[in-house]
Each structure stands twice: as C-alpha cells, then as structure tokens.
Amino acid sequence: MRGSRRSRLSTAGLLRRHLTTSPGASIALALLVLVGALLATAVPRAATALHTEALHEQLADLPAAELDLTASARERPSVGPSANGTTLAPDVEAVWGAQEDHLAAIVDEMPPRLAAITEPPLAMLTVAPVRAQVPGAGPSAPSYRVMPGFDPRLREHVELTSGAWPAPIEAPVPSSTPIELVLTDAVAERMEWALGEQRFIDIDGTSQPVVLSGTVSPVDATDGVWTHIVPALEPSVVDNGLAPPEITAVAFLDPASWSDFARVSVPLTLEVWIPIDTASITADASAELAPMLGRFSSDLHAVGDGGWVDEYYTVAGLGFASSLRDELALAAAAAAASDALLATVASGPIGVMVAVLVLGARVVFERRREGLELVAARGASNGQLRGILAIEGGLIGLPAAILGGILGTLAFDADGGAAGWVVAAVFAVTPAALLIASAPSLSPLRRVRADLGAAGGGRLRWIGELVLVLLAAASVVLLFRRGLASSAASVGVDPLLAAVPLLLSLVACLVVLRIYPLPLARIVRSMAAKPGLVGFLGSARALRDPSAGLVPVLAVVVGVAVAVFSSVLLGTIRSGVEAAASHRVGADASVAGRPLTRAQLDEMRAVPGVEAIAPVYSTRNASITIDGRQRTTTLIVIDVAEMQVVQHGRPDATPLPDSLADPPSADGVPVLVSGVVDSVTAEATEVEIDGDPFSVEGVVEGTTAYSPRANWMLIDVANARPYTDTLVPRTVLVRFDPGVDAEAVVADLEHISPDSTVETPDRVAEDLGSRPTVQGLVAALFAAIVLVSLLTALAIVLTLIVGRPARDRLLPLLATLGLDRRGERALVAWEIAPVTAVSLVVGAALGAVLPFVVLGGIDLSSFTGGDAQPAVAYDPWLIAGVLATSVIVTIVASALAASFGSRIDVARAMRKEEEG
C-alpha cells in the first residue's frame, strides 16, 4: 500500500496523473493534428492522381498516330533475315527480320524511363493509291482506288472472315499473273468487290490483275495501329455530288512478298512507329519524360542499312516525331494552374487550421494552468515546466501526426512527394511548441487582467500593422504587374500568389480589430442609459475584455472569405464552361465527322425545326509566304452569307465582314485571319497564300467553331477554288427554329449522318464539366467550404471555452444578484457576437474581391476549355446559401459553447476569486 502511494507521488506517477486528468482538450487537439497531417499527405497524392486521370483523358482524345513515336520515309526498307530472331512467321522474318532488329535496337537504346512507356515497334508499307478498274465499268461508275499494303504482322492485327489469306507473289511484278489481296469486310462491301473477282491496277504503265482472295476483320478495332493504317478499316469516300464518288482503301498483300514487289518503280511510304502505352504515363513523370522525348526526337535513328540494292535505295536513318511531348506540356501547364489554384484556396483553410491549433493549445494550457502553477509555487523551474508541457505536446502531436500521415498516404495510390510529410512533421511538433511558448505566463502569485493595458497596443502594434499592410499591397501590385504572362501555368505553385489571400485576410483581421470597438463603444454608452444589466455589462465586457483577439478573428474572417471566394470560383467556372461550350459549337448544333454529301446537306435543311445550316466546306493546310519564308496555317472555307444567317444574334459568333464575299481585287483575295496569323504577318512587306497576295479584312483572336486550331485563315467559298481541290464539308453548323424541340431535331440530324457526331452547347458543357480537372476542382472548392465552416465553428467554440474561467468567476456572482440562465446566455453571446458580426461582413467582402486578385495570376481557361480567361461570375443563390450557412454555423457553435458545463456554486466561485 505504501509502495503504491509512493509510486503515485513519484515524478512519473505525478506526471501520469497530470496527463490523464481532464484529457478531453488534449484529445481534441490530437484530432486536429491528425486531420492536418492527413490532409497534408493526402491532398498532394489526390492532386497527382487527379492530374494523371486528366492526362489520360486528354491523351485518349488523340489518335495513337499522333502520340506514337512515328517516322516515315519514301525509300524502301532493307530486306533480310533477323540476326537475333523475332516472333514473325519464318517466311515473313526472312524479309522483314533485319528491320525488326533495327527497331528493337532503337528501343534498347532509349532511357529506361522512356522505354517503360513504349510497346514493341511496328512497321507498315503502303503504295500510293492506284485505281482498281472494274472491267466494263462506265464513266459514271464509282472510282475505286487501292493502296497495296505490306504489314509484317498482318495476321496479328486481323482475322480472316471469308476466303483465304493472300498467296505469295509467284511471278515478276508487273505481269499477267494475278496478285491476291484481302480487304476488310467494310471496304469490300463499299467497293462492291466479291471474292475471286478480278480487277486491274496500273503498275509502271502495265495493267496488273489483282484478285480478292479473302476478307478480314480487325482483332481489335480500337487498336492504335488502325490510326496509322489509314484507310483500312473503313474506306475514304469523296462525294461532292459533282462527279462519281471516289472510294480509296488499303488492300493487304502477302507481307513476305515485299521482296518481289520492292523493285517496282512506284511511289510508296514506309511508316515505322513505336507505340506509346499512355496508361503507364503518370502526371508526376511528365516533367522527366518531356525532355527525353525531345532528345529522342532530335536524333537520327537507324531503321535500315541504307545504300543501293539493285535498282532501288534503302532507308538508313529516320527521325521520330510525336505530339506526346506537346501534350505533356499542355497537361503540365493545366496541372500547374490547378495546383496553384488549389494552393491559393488551401491557404485559407491552412490559416484557419493554424488559428484553431493555437486556440486548442490554449485550451489545453488553461486546463493545466492550476496544476502547473502549484508545481511552480513548490519550486519547479521554468525548464521543468517547459519539460512537462513538451512531453504532453509530444504525446498529443507525434502519434496523431504519424497516424494521420499514414492514413493520408494510404488514401490515394499516387506519389505526392515528400512535402506532405514535411507539413505533417510541422503539425507533429506544433502542440509542443505552442504549449512551451505558454510557460512564461505561469504565475502562482497573481493573474493578469486582460482588460487592463490592452487598448491601443502602442507604437509597436501600429508599426507591425503598417508593415503587414505594405506587404499585402506590394504583393498585390507585383501580382498584377506580373499578370498571366508568367502565371501559374509556367511557374507552378507560386508563393507570391498563395501568400496574397492570406496577407489580405490578415489585413482584413486588422481592420476588424480596429473598427469593431468604435460602434461597440457607442452601444455601451447607449446601454448605460437604459435599464437592465445584461446589455450594458455584456457590451462593456466585449469592449474592455474581448474574448476574440487576432486568432479567432482570423478564423472567422478567413473562413467566411474562403467560403465566399470558393462559391464565386464555382460560379465563374460554371459560366466559363457554358461560354466555352457555346463558342465551340457556334450554333444551336453542329454536325461533324465524316464527309457529308450534298444529298445529306439537303436532308438537313429539310428537317422540321431547322431554320438554316452553314457547312464548313474545307479545313486544309495552306502555305503562307511571309517575306520569302514559309509558314503553315489552316485554311477555312465557308459561305459567309450562310454562316452569318446561322450565327446571327449569337454573342459568340465569329465576326464575318461582308467584304469577304467580294471577288479578289488588286490587293489580293479577301480573308479573315486569326490573331496568330496576324502577329506573324503584321510587320511583313510581302505576304502570300499559295503564291497569291491576300487582303486582311479582319482579325479574330483564338479559335472558331469551324476549326479547333488557333492558327487559321478564313476565305469565302466563292474565292476558294484556286486554293483547294475539293469542297467536301465535314462540319455543318445548324440553327434551330425558335421554341423547337431541340432533342427531336438532334435525333433527326443523327439519323441523316449516323457516322458523324452531333453536338449542342448543352452536350459540350456537360462533357467539359465532367472532365477530371474540373470535377476535382469543384470537389476541392466544396471541400474547402465545408472544412473552413467546420473549423470556423470550432474556433468559435474554443474561443468561448478559453473565456470560460472568467465567466465561471463572474456568472455565479451575478446569479446571486438575480441573473437568470437567459441572461447568462445573453452575456455569453455578447462576448463573441459583435466581433463575429463584423468579421462576417468583412470576410464576405474579402471573399467577393479575392477572385479579381487571384485570377490575375491563374488562367482558368485550362479548366473551362475556352480560349481566354472567363469573366468573374457571381451566383447570388450560391453565395447567399454559403453566407447563410456561415451565420447558422456561427450561431449554433456559440450556443453549443455557451451550454458547455453547468453552473458552479457561488461559494466555489468566491473561493477561486480570492485564491486567484
């Protein structure tokens, strides 16, 4: 028994009793640390996962032919067997094996990180289109053209559906011996080519018979290989209604027979490519992959031996190209903008979290004050007191931070870097640091009254506030001077941009602390003249002994500001998406995809509910000569009058001067150009398009609904004949009659052109809004609103808990004078209500202004899909809902804090007052 008592009175026993007494505040502080560490480690990983998902979606919109490392040549490939062995069939390896060795060596020489995202190289050789003449066909019959193709891995890509595989070529080419070939089912049907039917192609001026031996279908129609072998699955059909349709497709020959075909003098294209496995690319690896792709593309790689073989020259080295590097750069810019915006939004919750941690540590300290003062009175040094507080702070922070960090790491399967763990480590030591900092205020002899000597703050306060205001002003000026030119898209998470909202919030807090005593003093004077104790005492205590210092004011101001700021951003993104969708469609609907015939256009005009249509007759590459230098642009051909009717009255209509329809003059053909073209031609003395001068009738920045490219030149269809061979529209803009059932009209349009895509602004807006980047940002903004609301409520609760000891001494005394519970609750409300009301107003105003400041450095167009920064948009219902929620949260938190505990008896209150 004596040993047990001795152990309880030992240093370890006393410390254990100290830590286990009233542990509620310590547990709450530990939970705060856990949440902070969890967010610190989870958010970067969530951002990386979001960026990776967005990157995959972005790459999925592009054909594999644009992403794969691709090279092409007009020379013939080397013929010979492999020295190392391949997976090709023996007869095919004897012809294509040497080239397979060269391609495999290219991959082996890649950096491991780049090679990890590639698949085995492939090759395909196609001969230029030659007409496959049908015996006895008349002049009005369709024109059938085939592109003889040799695919070494043909039987891996397609499966036989009818007939037989093409037999090897047994006779010299050309000859009277038919050459067998296979077509895909869709091509054979469109060309009306039956099995065993013989047609004739021209080779070196000689008619060479070819026969369809079989038909095939793709093993996987979505395989990227079919974006390189164009047109193979489906034929290319040109039908402008003025001439018989021209149908072109790839016809596959026996790949082992290339050695027999190689000596034929025909134009051909050898395409080799290294497929990219986009699923293996992660956002965090983009920065490393981009320079590797650049170096790989700048080098020449051996794909053959080179030199003359009999009558032809074989290819030696080629340079590979891919748009993947550019796409990674675009994705990195979008990710940087997203990270910058998230960092800016997160600065608010971080500020509130710090404020709440400070309040939580203060609550823990107040719970320990009496015991520590007793220890100090019995001779404990400041070092020993700090040691006790450091131990408790470590027990609060370290386990919670470790657990939170582990949970945050496990929450997302992505690499978030080490920064999150650094922040978690800061959270781990924060409770100990805050508690240790409180040790010098311990005094067993007296308590300092908070209402004495607090007014004004002296010269140092004024100097500190002036420095803070100057820092905030300088940051805002620098941010606006820098602008979007070196925005977050290029500098990533910018400390300047992230600091501006917090600095402005601190300035707003100073404003609150400076201005709220002014009306409060008038209230005190007015209450003094009225009967009743509660109003005068409550307002006087709020003025002389305010519970809300900088920390709780910061929590309320930043919390409300972030909530309003987030709601404004949500409205801005929503309106920006809608504007971008409307601009992209450019009409009530657009039909785009496959070439459209005149008959289909006439059917569209006749659809009930369609007021007018305007085809985009051509979007082809054109050459601009600028003072002797060649540049490429996209030439858009439309009928200006038709397009003006379709886009009449739309705010996103492309301005089309009537002069575009004028015939060419001495100044040249009239054109409309984009800002990109204007910027490179504005200072030139001589500019031409395909050798002819042109007259610029107007300049339009950005893209149009006619083409997704920003580098373009537009010409009226009446002046287009010298610059394009065919005017076959692939895009048609449609205007609906007012009040028509849009879905019914869209269904009719889809029926007329089943192979095309019909888009409306609503559909495009839904697609843009469902992108991972937008969804992630919206989720982050909603999470920020919820988090700061909860933290603000917690800050108010902790503020009132910190002030509870003073109430515990005052309220029982007032109860002896007849103060009832209603009066007690009113006094509690006076402690927090005045400063909270002012903080709510100032925070709301700051939140409404912040978007104009922040969006000076962050371009939201990467989120909305538009060409330019969207205008700040206020959603009154959303903002009103957020503000109403903030007010309700504040009221509920205040009522909850006021109800904590019950009355203490008068005798105990008197004794504490005498002892304190």
Describe this structure in words.
The protein has 916 residues and is α+β, with helices and mostly antiparallel strands. The chain folds into 5 domains: 14-62 and 325-447, no CATH class; 67-126 and 267-322; 129-266, no CATH class; 516-584 and 762-916, no CATH class; 589-759, no CATH class. It is 53% helix and 16% strand. The protein has 31 helices and 24 strands. Strands 1, 2, 3, 4, 9, 10 and 11 form a 7-stranded mixed β-sheet that branches. Strand 17 (610-626) and strand 18 (629-638) form a beta hairpin. Helix 13 runs antiparallel to helix 14, helix 20 packs across helix 25 and helix 27 (804-816) crosses helix 31. The longest helix is centred in the middle third of the chain and has 54 residues, at 324-377. The protein is elongated. Residues 1-6, 450-455, 485-490 and 901-909 have low confidence and may be disordered. Residues 783-904 form the ABC3 transporter permease C-terminal domain. Belongs to the ABC-4 integral membrane protein family. It is a multi-pass membrane protein. Pfam families: FtsX. Keywords: Cell membrane, Membrane, Transmembrane, Transmembrane helix.
Helix/strand layout:
Elements: H1 2-9, H2 11-20, H3 24-60, H4 64-67, E1 69-73, H5 90-108, H6 112-115, E2 122-127, E3 130-131, E4 143-150, H7 154-157, E5 158-163, E6 179-184, H8 185-190, E7 198-203, E8 206-218, H9 225-228, E9 236-238, E10 246-252, H10 258-261, E11 268-274, H11 286-298, E12 301-302, E13 307-309, E14 312-314, E15 317-318, H12 324-377, H13 382-411, H14 419-438, H15 458-482, H16 488-491, H17 495-515, H18 517-528, H19 534-544, H20 550-585, E16 589-592, H21 598-605, E17 610-626, E18 629-638, H22 640-646, E19 669-674, H23 675-681, E20 687-689, E21 692-700, E22 712-716, E23 731-736, H24 742-752, E24 757-759, H25 761-769, H26 772-802, H27 804-816, H28 821-854, H29 861-864, H30 876-898, H31 906-915
Parallel strand pairs: 4-10, 6-8, 18-22, 19-21
Antiparallel strand pairs: 1-11, 2-4, 2-11, 3-4, 5-8, 7-8, 9-10, 12-15, 13-14, 16-23, 16-24, 17-18, 17-20, 17-23, 19-22, 20-21
